[in-house]
Fold these 2 entries.
Entry 1:
Amino acid sequence: MKKFLVILILAVLGFHLFEAFSGLGLGVTRFEKGVKDYYLEKTVSELHVANTVTSIVVNFRGFDTLGEVTVLFLAVSAMGGILYKRRHQTGDRSVLFSSSSIVRSGSKLLFPAIILLGVYVFIHGHLSPGGGFQGGAIIATGFLLMLIAYENFSVSHNTLSYIESFAGIFFVGIGLLGFMNGGTFLQNFLPAGVLNNLFSGGVIGIIYVMVGFKVAAELTGLIYTILHEKD
């Protein structure tokens, strides 16, 4: 009986969803005119940004990006709190172990290259695919490699906290300056520069740098806490 009710409810729900979506008129004619035209026009004419997705994420819908960064911060903080409590219940311990000389030597060579790649990705986020989240994750991967390769490799939590806090405050500060200069959060107030140049897009490049540092610091701190629970 219970299975029958579940199937009946799903069938009714599916029918109404199909009826609702079939009346939307999705297709090419649906998107002939709309907000996309504004985004495509203003991205090049006003912001001088080559990557339309970046202009939408960081400028037109920048407040959403602030929310995403905040969610990541809350998730990392919650995970850190859980692991901290667990460490005090079970005692200090580490899941790290000694690696071979090949892994250690390779890590030394790859670590700076990974960091440079991460920095490149978030610095050029307004010119090519990439951005702060992707670049920050790449940098955190570099620290993960070093933590796995070297048992005694340590990361300063104070330094990570300072970087994360400064990047977050700077992000919000730029958004508030947009209020003061243009009337909306994260509205551009700097010269747009020349299209396809590194120093273009106004505040977009600066925001992506801050997001990159913030994500890198948060993920690196979380990885260190998970892999190496000793203070």
Note: The chain has eight helices and no strands.
Entry 2:
Amino acid sequence: MATEGGGKEMNEIKTQFTTREGLYKLLPHSEYSRPNRVPFNSQGSNPVRVSFVNLNDQSGNGDRLCFNVGRELYFYIYKGVRKAADLSKPIDKRIYKGTQPTCHDFNHLTATAESVSLLVGFSAGQVQLIDPIKKETSKLFNEEGLLSSQNQANSPSGTVV
């Protein structure tokens, strides 16, 4: 787009502009195709955690990526920083209603191309063991929420009861 200002001619490609309707911005593919974007919240943002694991499969695409956005948990094939992941096709996607994931990690010692163990911790104290590849293994621990960080303050010794 050519603009004139102060007698000088400039050739500039704009990446964003503002109109009465709002702000228009050129987004990178990874941000544009992100599933279910979380709306802007001025109070603070939901924590996002990312976990990686390498499965050493024969295809050479052994890296897997898990991340959470709010109450949603996604599991994808990770092809590196130079190739954008197809965010419209997750290997596994889970949406939690009563609580939200706060942390997760893979068991790197037992991970194979056919199965991988993923532990997910939740805001109410529960811990879930899932296999996002097989999608059949799922165990829930501390379902009652008896062990949580809030109980530490109420315990006389400061330890979790």
Note: Residues 46 and 70 are 6 Å apart (CA to CA).
